[in-house]
Design brief:
Layout (H helix, E strand, L loop, with lengths): L1 E5 L6 H12 L2 E4 H9 L3 H8 L1 H21 L8 E4 L8 H10 E7 L2 H14 L14 H19 L2 E4 L4 H15 L5
Parallel strand pairs: 1-3, 1-4, 2-3, 4-5
Helix pairs in contact: 1-8, 2-4, 3-4, 4-5, 6-7
């Protein structure tokens, strides 16, 4: 079973996913990292050179290959896998269908303000990872508010469960472990 984490950029999909995988003793995959391995560059460079449409096409291809690869790994050791999706991956109908057919989806719901704060802190540490804007908004906060407004419903509709993020990653991971163990007793 693949547990896919979705939500806005900055909602903690990668951090929560890494901690969750470590605590459960399972493999963790990050869709954005898999894309960068394939393109042998950063997503930022790809988007700046070829645009978001090109990125979304590659994202779909990598997602499909990754899910097929993970679904074929049926060994006892890899019955459970954690996958961090990109913030826009589940927005595309084709991807949403593939994800829903193959994954247990957890929506990490956080406010645009919290996401903006986390992205800003991350950008200070990793300036080469800063992403180009997704909207025509003038500020990151206004962009995150717009994305929340346009994506929240889709995230909700595609989620098996919703975790409202707190400021405590460990507490959130404990909640997820409890939920996962309740839903997947046979797998764990």
């Amino acid at each position: 079973m693949i547990i896919a984490l979705t939500g806005l950029r900055g909602s903690g999909k990668t951090k929560i996913g890494e901690i969750l995988a470590e605590k459960l003793g399972v493999k963790f995959y990050d869709l954005d990292q898999e894309i960068e391995k394939k393109i042998k560059s950063t997503i930022k460079d790809l988007v700046e050179k070829k645009g978001w449409e090109s990125f979304r096409k590659i994202e779909s291809e990598v997602l499909e290959k990754l899910i097929k690869k993970l679904e074929t790994k049926k060994s006892a050791k890899e019955k459970l896998t954690i996958l961090s999706l990109g913030g826009g991956a589940i927005i595309q109908e084709k991807n949403a269908k593939l994800i829903n057919q193959n994954c247990f989806v957890i929506y990490l719901q956080d406010t645009p303000e919290n996401c903006t704060k986390k992205i800003t802190e991350s950008n200070k540490k990793h300036s080469n990872k800063t992403r180009p804007a997704l909207t025509s908004q003038k500020t990151l906060l206004s962009e995150m508010k717009e994305l929340y407004k346009t994506r929240h419903k889709t995230y909700k509709e595609n989620a098996d469960i919703i975790l409202k993020r707190s400021d405590d990653k460990e507490k959130d991971v404990k909640k997820l472990i409890k939920t996962i163990s309740e839903n997947f007793k046979k797998t764990m």
